[in-house]
């Protein structure tokens, strides 16, 4: 059964590139259906009109990187009945979490003319480090069909189908020839969560891990194999340190190769 | 090893020059020909429009987690070992819409899922693959609950088998008694003979349909000499298996080694990526997903390939009962080689070697079985047993 009153949807932005929010606008054909099914109450990328909270469904993009945002996320949580994080930034800290492996003050002094104006936290962290999150949608950026699936599942009161298994299942279902086995191209697919549709292997490239760790990822075994087909330890550090570098399994694996 | 026999049915000769006729005749009968072709560095099964798309002059090097194509010295059309695809993808579809529903003016309407089955001719089916088809037939067609989608596609399929001449480095059909010679369940079976300047196909018929087709292509009967040449091809293949597995008593071996330390060892290497189950021609497991539209007016139910390597697969009442990779690998291997016998009366493994080649980390079912056999019944300390019995 669909939810009776038209639910209010809000989209919130923290430290991010806007790519995930844009996948909602990218829904083109389905956008009217979205607008028909929910009241878009707060979505600065799409409209300046703001409807006051509370909100039934909040989509949160971006990670927490400033003291101000660390406060603001609590306000968002208080105003939201159901909070969904969208994308690698909100779910794992994003590409900006690369700073977590270094001393951020050093960057600030190099990058900014007047470092005194910059107020940044030492680490970029996922939303779930600050507040309770009802559902996390992985991906950098998220897949628009998965976003529609999450909204649709919410509206129809069912569990979203965003399987936590490996990219390999999607790869095999679409009959792609495995790039790891047939070409010797390192691929993060076996430790990465499905959701993109296994795009990269279908273009003869290895998976970059945009969708973050899958359930029970064995990163050590994959890294060992990747080393055997030619990756060096610095290569492995870089492979695990992209958009989901601060997710626990990828973080641990990258550190293991840094220390070698 | 005795020589394979070619005398049960009458054999014919199809010359290399008249081979394209096979395509013409099949297409004229309304079949889409699905067969081997080279794509992205592997021999895959796809729709073919002509004989030119066959993997002429190609063969492969296969090992644990590796597959590479290489050139042959001759221009054999079927000189390769099985690749990543199996015929399963055409009969038991990777994703299949079971049904859809919509509400209009408050009335619910239910429509059937995917449309009618196409008429497919499978060209180049290997002996192990015939056995795999027979195994999936048992799964989907036997007993009370017949799968209508599978049945339609299966009944429509015409099978042109090709006996193996060049097994791959991971093949072990001889160990599993499933090859390399096609012995049943085909419409036509070819043996490609290339010797002393000759290149021809010896053809056996396995059904009236096959005989009728062949009648339109060739009437040239095979001589004893031709049959001997074909028998040599198959005998040579049988002598060149890339792997072996001692299959006698394997069921009891695995049953009594449920607590073997090797399971822990393989779990450390296994990615739980599910590739082995996806490429296995007999694995049949699926998950069901419902899709709904935003307005709550349309819904559809999808069936998709799933695997015992996923957590959701064994999610029962609050959690997964096979949470560890150890228990998942053990489920896969024990199902293939042991519990399958109790469930379906045969082995669940036909020795095609795909799970070995296409495992990204090269885990080898024959090697795992060998190690368990070598240390049959190895005793664990009490603490190890306890550790081992965790889910
Ligand atoms: S190409 Fe990558 S994602 Fe696809 S099956 Fe191979 S390892 Fe998995
Ligand atoms: S278990 Fe492996 S070797 Fe046996 S049939 Fe399946 S894929 Fe082939
Ligand atoms: S091995 Fe696993 S995926 Fe394959 S048929 Fe058995 S339970 Fe299903
Ligand atoms: S045995 Fe290999 S292919 Fe199968 S799940 Fe483990 S790593 Fe993946």
Summarize the structure in words.
The complex is a heterodimer of chains A (260) and B (391). Chain A is 38% helix and 10% strand. With 260 residues, chain A is of the alpha/beta class. A five-stranded parallel beta sheet of chain A has the order 2-1-3-4-5. In chain A, helix 3 (67-79) links the parallel strand 3 and strand 4 (80-86). The radius of gyration of chain A is 19 Å and the shape is globular. The mean pLDDT of chain A is 94. By secondary structure, chain B is an alpha+beta fold. Chain B has two domains: 11-238, no CATH class; 250-388, no CATH class. Chain B is built from 14 helices and 15 strands. In chain B, 46% of the residues are buried. The model of chain B has no long low-confidence stretch (mean pLDDT 94). The chains are: A alpha/beta (260), B alpha+beta (391). Chains A and B meet through helix 2, helix 6, helix 7, helix 8 and helix 10 of A and strand 5, helix 10 and strand 12 of B. The complex binds iron/sulfur cluster (SF4) (4 copies). One iron/sulfur cluster (SF4) binds at residues 279-282, 336, 349-355, 365 of chain B.
List its traits:
heterodimer; A: 260 residues; alpha/beta; Rossmann fold; 2 domains; 5-stranded parallel β-sheet; globular; B: 391 residues; alpha+beta; 7-stranded mixed β-sheet; 4-stranded antiparallel β-sheet; 24% strand; binds iron/sulfur cluster
**Element string of chain A (H = helix, E = strand):** EHHEEHEHHEHHHHHHH
Biggest sheet of chain B, in brief? 7 strands, mixed
Largest sheet of chain A: 5 strands, parallel
Strand-pairing-aware structural class of chain A: alpha/beta
List the helices and strands of chain B in order.
EHEEEEHEEEHHEHEEHHHHHEEEEHHHH
Helix content of chain B: 25-40%
Which word captures the global form of chain B? globular
CATH level 4 superfamily of the largest domain in chain A: NADH:ubiquinone oxidoreductase-like, 20kDa subunit
Give me the side-by-side strand order of the main sheet of chain B: 1-11-10-9-8-2-3
Query: In CATH terms, what is the architecture of the largest domain in chain A?
Result: 3-Layer(aba) Sandwich
Q: Uncertain spans of chain A, ≥5 residues at pLDDT below 50? A: none
Our Rg estimate of chain B from Cα atoms comes to 23 Å
Strand order of the largest sheet of chain A: 2-1-3-4-5
């Amino acid at each position: 059964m669909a939810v009776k009153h038209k639910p209010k949807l809000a989209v919130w932005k923290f430290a991010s590139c806007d790519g995930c929010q844009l996948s909602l606008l990218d829904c083109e054909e389905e956008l009217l259906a979205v607008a028909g099914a929910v009241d878009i109450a707060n979505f600065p990328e799409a409209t300046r009109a703001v409807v006051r909270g509370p909100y039934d469904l909040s989509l949160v993009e971006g990670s927490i990187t400033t003291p101000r945002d660390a406060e603001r996320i609590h306000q968002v949580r208080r105003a939201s009945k159901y909070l969904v994080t969208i994308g690698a930034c909100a779910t794992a800290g994003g590409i900006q979490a690369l700073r977590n492996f270094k001393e951020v003050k050093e960057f600030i002094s190099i990058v900014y003319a007047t470092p005194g104006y910059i107020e940044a936290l030492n680490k970029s962290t996922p939303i779930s480090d600050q507040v309770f999150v009802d559902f996390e949608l992985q991906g950098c950026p998220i897949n628009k069909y998965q976003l529609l699936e999450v909204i649709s599942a919410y509206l129809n009161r069912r569990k979203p189908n965003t399987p936590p298994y490996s990219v390999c299942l999607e790869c095999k279902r679409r009959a792609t020839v495995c790039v790891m086995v047939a070409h010797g191209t390192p691929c993060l697919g076996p430790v990465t969560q499905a959701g993109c549709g296994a795009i990269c292997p279908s273009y003869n490239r290895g998976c970059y891990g945009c969708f973050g760790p899958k359930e029970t990822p064995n990163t050590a075994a994959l890294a060992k194999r990747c080393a055997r087909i030619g990756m060096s330890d610095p290569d492995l550090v870089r492979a695990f340190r992209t958009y989901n570098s601060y997710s626990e399994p990828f973080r641990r694996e990258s550190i293991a190769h840094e220390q070698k | 090893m005795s020589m394979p026999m070619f005398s049960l049915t009458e054999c014919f000769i199809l010359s290399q020059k008249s081979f394209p006729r096979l395509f013409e005749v099949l297409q004229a009968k309304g079949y889409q020909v699905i067969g081997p072709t080279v794509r992205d560095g592997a021999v895959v099964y796809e729709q073919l429009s002509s004989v030119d798309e066959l993997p002429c002059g190609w063969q492969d090097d296969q090992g644990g987690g590796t597959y590479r194509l290489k050139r042959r010295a001759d221009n054999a059309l079927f000189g390769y070992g099985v690749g990543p695809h199996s015929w399963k993808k055409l009969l038991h579809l990777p994703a299949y819409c079971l049904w859809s529903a919509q509400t209009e003016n408050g009335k619910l309407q239910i429509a059937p899922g995917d449309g009618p089955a196409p008429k497919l001719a499978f060209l180049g089916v290997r002996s192990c693959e015939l056995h795999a088809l027979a195994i999936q037939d048992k799964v989907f067609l036997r007993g009370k609950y017949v799968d209508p989608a599978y049945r339609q596609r299966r009944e429509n399929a015409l099978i042109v088998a090709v006996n193996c001449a060049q097994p791959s480095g991971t093949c072990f059909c001889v160990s599993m008694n499933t090859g390399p010679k096609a012995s049943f369940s085909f419409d036509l079976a070819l043996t490609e003979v290339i010797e002393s300047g000759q290149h021809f196909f010896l053809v056996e018929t396995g059904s009236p349909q096959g005989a009728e087709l062949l009648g339109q292509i060739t009437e040239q009967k095979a001589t004893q000499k031709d049959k001997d040449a074909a028998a040599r091809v198959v005998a040579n293949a049988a002598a060149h298996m890339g792997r072996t597995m001692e299959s006698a008593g394997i069921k009891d071996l695995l049953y009594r080694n449920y607590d073997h330390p090797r399971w822990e060892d393989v779990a450390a290497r296994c990615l739980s990526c599910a590739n082995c189950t996806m490429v296995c021609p007999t694995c049949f497991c699926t998950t069901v997903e419902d899709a709904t539209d935003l307005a709550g007016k349309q819904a559809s139910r999808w069936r998709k390939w799933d695997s015992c390597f996923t957590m959701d697969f064994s999610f029962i009442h609050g959690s997964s009962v096979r949470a560890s990779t150890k228990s998942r690998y053990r489920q896969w291997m024990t199902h293939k080689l042991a519990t399958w016998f109790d469930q379906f009366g045969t082995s669940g493994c036909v020795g095609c070697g795909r799970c070995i080649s296409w495992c990204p980390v090269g885990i080898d079912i024959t090697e795992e079985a060998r190690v368990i056999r070598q240390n049959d019944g190895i005793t664990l300390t009490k603490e190890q047993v306890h550790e081992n019995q965790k889910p």
